[in-house]
Design a protein that fits this description.
The protein is α/β, with parallel strands linked by helices. It is 52% helix and 9% strand. It contains 23 helices and 15 strands. The strands form 5 sheets. It has a 7-stranded mixed sheet with strand order 3-11-8-2-7-5-6, with helices on both faces. A two-stranded antiparallel ribbon has the order 1-13. It has a two-stranded parallel sheet with strand order 4-12. A hairpin with a 7-residue loop joins strand 9 and strand 10. Helix 2 runs antiparallel to helix 8 and helix 5 packs across helix 12. It is elongated, with a radius of gyration of 30 Å. The mean pLDDT is 88. It is a multi-pass membrane protein.
Length: 614
């Protein structure tokens, strides 16, 4: 029996050895994980650290100690040193980014670092050691590093502390060592370690599996879609965020390389410039079912309806978006590839490249996709091909360089930059529209609707839900005013204006108590109507209508055709009179050769027109 007990005690003792062999590493790296998480907590009500922080951090730190314990002592010391440098540096950078840019490490931030020159790098390093930064959350990490260094110096050079204090510490150490050497104490400690590690492994298993799934995506779109899932991975440590950022950038780089390789292959056979000025307005998160122009009972689109009554705005009644995520939509809409064609979106020319090659002056005014450090992976994924310097130069002649709280700021950008235009212009306005949070999308003095206005329309909603619904409709109403002012800028030009949002939006549709989007893999008719049905219209100036009455007739004849906006480039090229290998009339909504029977594949999978209830 004694042999069994001894064998059991020896086995349990083994569990402590990885920590014993790397005691300082275990303590300080665990502390670093905690400090790094506390330091990046937003200063907002209800902010909290990752729920499983302490147990999963224990598991990760213990796993590193096991790996280190398996190494020869000489190698182990070097490995620990390298890990110290890597982990402390990553944490410092992560927390610094949070303090300076209100964001931890992201793919966009890493991409910006890659585009930083020597002067900017020097300014960055100088700002890191400024008093304001040191006294911020960054100081917590620095304090831990200093404590670690002082501890290491005491162990290496004990004479740097007073002799009497050193003797007391040594005596305390001897007593602790003697107590810990007792068999039952070592066994008890081993049992505690086993219990804690097993418990941590069990409760951390889901996040580890989710992390593996996230890091296994074959392209940036797949990774992005994984992040829309409810139980996606929590990258709770700076090191994980850095690895993910490097990984996401590597995936994006593959698509960028393919796009860059194709720049010189873009070919235009001829261009008649049949529309001297083409304006494309891309809205955001706009459900057709919240547009009064399409029958919504609240007066959300008075200005667009006035334009429609004047006879030169034609609304299209059956238009859907190919995706319900902005970044996916942008890739689909900018690429001349349509759903169902072979290859990927990045294997085809971007319509902006084609227009530049044809001789149009292309202006891109965005209120979302400027390169910025704190953008989410969704914005990074949607904007990386627009913001890459080489691709941006291939697509655009003129761009704005700042974002605005409200979309009307883009009007000032246009007024400031329009002098750069040429005889033939393609102007793209990219709005923030009705993007969540809805309340922030319209100025306080421009809000018309209140929660109480929906008591009869939506009696099933509570006061908070009605307030959110009113915020959304106020954003739609404000969007109406912005769009009207954009149209007004081209009223006296020979111009045609196309309006489309990227995708729809849920906002308490039917009996649903839900807003935003579900990103469900299974698309039914209800979800398709809410998240993929979009408003779409074309307006032309009086001069344009007089000179090209056949285009206005074609617009009116096509108003009820089925259309999906992945084919938008072909409509635009048709309006411009561009003849190119990538232009296909069967995808051009206004062409007599338009193929209305083409399957409209939502997310590339679900045929919209075959959904039961459509």
């Amino acid at each position: 029996m004694q042999k069994v007990v001894k064998a059991l005690c020896d086995a349990l003792t083994l569990a402590v050895k990885p920590i014993g062999a790397n005691a300082s590493f275990f303590f300080f790296m665990y502390a670093l994980g905690c400090v790094s998480s506390w330091a990046v907590l937003p200063d907002s009500k209800g902010a909290k650290v990752y729920d499983n922080l302490y147990l999963e951090l224990l598991l990760d730190t213990y796993a590193l100690c096991i790996v280190l314990a398996l190494l020869p002592l000489a190698v182990r010391r070097w490995a620990r040193g390298l890990l110290y440098v890597a982990l402390y540096t990553t944490s410092l950078v992560d927390v610094y980014c949070f303090v300076k840019f209100q964001s931890t490490l992201t793919p966009s931030m890493l991409m910006l670092v890659g585009e930083t020159d020597t002067r900017e790098a020097g300014e960055f390093l100088r700002s890191c050691v400024s008093p304001g930064v040191i006294t911020s959350s960054v100081g917590w990490v620095l304090a831990l590093i200093i404590l670690h260094v002082l501890t290491a110096l005491r162990l290496k050079f004990p004479h740097i502390i007073p002799h009497r204090t050193e003797q007391r510490l040594r005596e305390a150490g001897r007593r602790i060592a003697a107590f810990a050497s007792e068999t039952y104490v070592r066994a008890a400690a081993g049992l505690a370690v086993v219990i804690m590690v097993v418990w941590a492994a069990v409760v951390s298993a889901d996040n580890k599996q989710a992390t593996w799934k996230l890091m296994s995506g074959t392209n940036i779109g797949e990774v992005e879609h994984t992040l829309t899932e409810k139980d996606h991975a929590q990258l709770y440590l700076p090191a994980y965020r850095l690895v993910f950022s490097v990984y996401a950038n590597s995936l994006a780089a593959k698509q960028i390389d393919r796009l860059i390789a194709g720049i010189n292959d873009v070919r235009v056979d001829s261009c008649s410039y049949s529309s001297p000025t083409i304006v494309l307005i891309i809205g955001e998160s706009y459900s057709r079912h919240h547009s009064a122009m399409y029958g919504y009972p609240m007066p959300t689109t008075p200005r667009q309806q006035r334009l429609e009554r004047q006879g030169r705005l034609v609304k299209f009644t059956d238009v859907v978006s190919p995706h319900n995520l902005t970044s996916f939509v942008f890739k689909s809409v900018f690429s001349t590839r349509v759903e169902g064609q072979k290859g990927e979106w990045c294997d085809y020319p971007l319509f902006t490249e084609v227009f530049r090659k044809a001789g149009y002056h292309v202006t891109f005014l965005t209120n979302q996709f400027l390169p910025k450090a704190h953008e989410a992976v969704y914005d990074f994924s949607g904007g990386f091909f627009l913001n890459n310097p080489t691709l941006s130069e291939a697509q655009f002649d003129t761009r704005n360089d700042r974002l605005h709280t409200y979309d009307e700021g883009l009007l000032d950008d246009y007024d400031r930059l329009k002098g750069q235009g040429g005889d033939h212009n393609l102007v793209i306005f990219h709005l923030i529209g009705q993007h969540v949070s809805y309340r922030q999308r319209s100025p306080k003095d421009r809000k018309l609707f209140k929660g109480d206005d929906y008591k009869e329309l939506k009696p099933n909603l509570n006061a908070r839900e009605r307030r959110i619904l009113s915020d959304y409709d106020n954003a739609v109403l404000y969007n109406d005013s912005v769009v009207d002012r954009i149209v007004d800028r081209f009223r006296n030009d020979d111009a045609v204006v196309i309006y489309m949002p990227d995708h729809g939006e849920e906002c308490y549709e039917g009996d649903m108590h839900f807003f935003c989007r579900m990103h469900s893999a299974e698309i039914d008719a209800r979800l398709a109507h809410a998240e993929f049905d979009i408003p779409f219209w074309i307006w032309c100036s009086s001069r344009y209508a007089r000179r090209r009455p056949e285009v206005l007739r074609a617009m009116r004849a096509a108003r009820d055709r089925r259309f999906m906006t992945d084919a938008l480039p072909h409509l635009l090229m048709g309006l411009a009179g561009i003849s190119a290998p990538c232009y296909e009339p069967r995808y051009d909504l206004l062409s007599p050769d338009y193929d209305e029977t083409r399957p409209r594949l939502l997310k590339g999978v679900t045929d919209y027109d075959r959904l039961e209830g459509i």
